């Protein structure tokens, strides 16, 4: 299609369409031929929704934006299409046709035949109707399994690419600092190393499928005051450097991410969208990132409307461009006419426009969008009849059996057994009382960015598009001989206790009570978890704690099951429940996973990616706290969690022994090698998650009491043992020193091989010798584990 586009300079056209020419030369030639209007047109998106009949997309009317006139925009080109699949429910094949027809129109409407780059959400699966709903990122963290997350992301990317999408807005690399924040479910956990390794694996998977991964939110969003969405973030430069930035650093260096999205928040009065030192100085000049920086939705306009650092739309555009934001999303507000006029009158240098444009066009060239054989028809529609759209309906499967198998495996690995007095696994109970607001709610397994909860709720009557068995249904199948009595008891957050007496009666008549509690995912106050659904305290929402306490008083063993987006304080249940099973929105296969853990079909191996608080008012809090952040005699408040980061039980037992070290001293540019044995001493196979923590007792600045620097999953049959060797680079002891530079200091360190952040099993002291050494973003980031069969 591009080859047929007329242009005033045919030789230059052939250069930018020539796939054998150097990318830089192609891009330079195209920029030189473009007018300022054509340049800025590549720097914004238009929010659209695919047509349900396969026709062209329709502009989405959002209450924060004016209507968009595509006919007026397209002659100068268009940079991006925003969420063609994630705006309205549409059959995937017809959505792909709608996108293809629109892309053909976009390319035919501008002088250079440039199509748009289409992006969509993919936080817990492709956010399209009928696509697999995987566990949310907090469950990825609970699995401690980067390889599995990489496979999941590759599957998500293949589905997106097959229908014509180029860019995915994931993963979220924000490190949890306050569990009251509504978007905790979207994060991977409270530890930067866990977030970095799992998030990098996701990036690698998505990019392997040809999808541009977008890291968000850069940087500091999760550190907002009091856990309030979009609130200012309070932190010093050291906290930002040592806690919030490392996941982004790792995902760029090792993941190959090609895009970054700014955070909404301001730090010390500087919004991220206006922070040149962050978006250009650190990201590009220091780390060497050469991809695109895209604005979080409306973030450029927010420089005027929310932050008050821009006088008008042109000022907002110039400020964001200068800082390093290349693309305005989701719609055009500032990078269109206001920016064009500001360049014309000299307020914004055209060089800034060209800088952003070069990055955008370089990415489009890499995606093949400027090649002469570019075809708007995606792979999913190959060999189909586009002239008869109805024959396409149902032809594209975004929820394949392979997808569902991945979703189930991840859900099973992510379930965390917090406590168990021996009641679990259940041994063929005759009478089960199943109680609670999430016991018979199919969508209780979904996060706020799943299509049914994000978009589907605005289209009542539209089928969910995927199978979502409730916990009641899967338990009925898991325990076919049991008499299961279901009572709702109360709602998630309605405070209704009219069903309390019935629930207590059912519990008293049962052999075991299963109470399913937790959250309802939603957006901006429509749920108890999700974007804009922040919590004042970590009490269970509504009257759920009241219901739980009444069931504990009923005299029947109570198994507490959580389907939630954040950890909650559970009150008496911490010590009085027979067992506690924690899941974080485990996706469409999640209730099968929970039922399997309850029956023993699945041996739980999940570990907490965030601590479970003992008291509802203990936030902000994190295991990464310095000594003064932990319990002490100077305060009457004890922030010790009920269940710490990294905690999780199994139905078998593991013995750790025989720790040796090759040497107890190494220079500050050296490494230590440890070896130890893990043996399954129980009567069934299981998986232990070995966690390596570093404790630095004396440093030039205050350090966390412990921090995770490595982990590995060890799967063992009953009686089996493995000898593990772990190499620990001195670089892992680095931190930001007093002068703002990252250092490795000589001195004594403690390496703790642990079952959780609070459960060290094997500990050794080692010493770094020599001089203080400065390191940078090229430092070694990982401890290396090797597993071999143990000798008798």
Automatic annotation (TrEMBL):
What Pfam families does the record point to? Fn3-like, Glyco_hydro_3, Glyco_hydro_3_C
InterPro entries in the cross-refs: Cellulose_deg_GH3 (IPR050288), Fn3-like (IPR026891), GH (IPR017853), Glyco_hydro_3_C (IPR002772), Glyco_hydro_3_C_sf (IPR036881), Glyco_hydro_3_N (IPR001764), Glyco_hydro_3_N_sf (IPR036962), Ig-like_fold (IPR013783)
Q: Which SMART domains match?
A: Fn3_like
Keywords (alphabetical) are: Hydrolase
The domain of life for this entry's organism is: Bacteria
Any single GO molecular-function term of the entry would be: hydrolase activity
Q: Where is the Fibronectin type III-like domain?
A: 688-757
PANTHER family attached to this UniProt entry:
BETA-GLUCOSIDASE
Which family is this sequence assigned to?
Answer: Belongs to the glycosyl hydrolase 3 family.
Identification of the protein by name: Glycoside hydrolase family 3 N-terminal domain-containing protein
What is the organism field in this record? Streptomyces erythrogriseus
Organism lineage reads as: Bacteria, Bacillati, Actinomycetota, Actinomycetes, Kitasatosporales
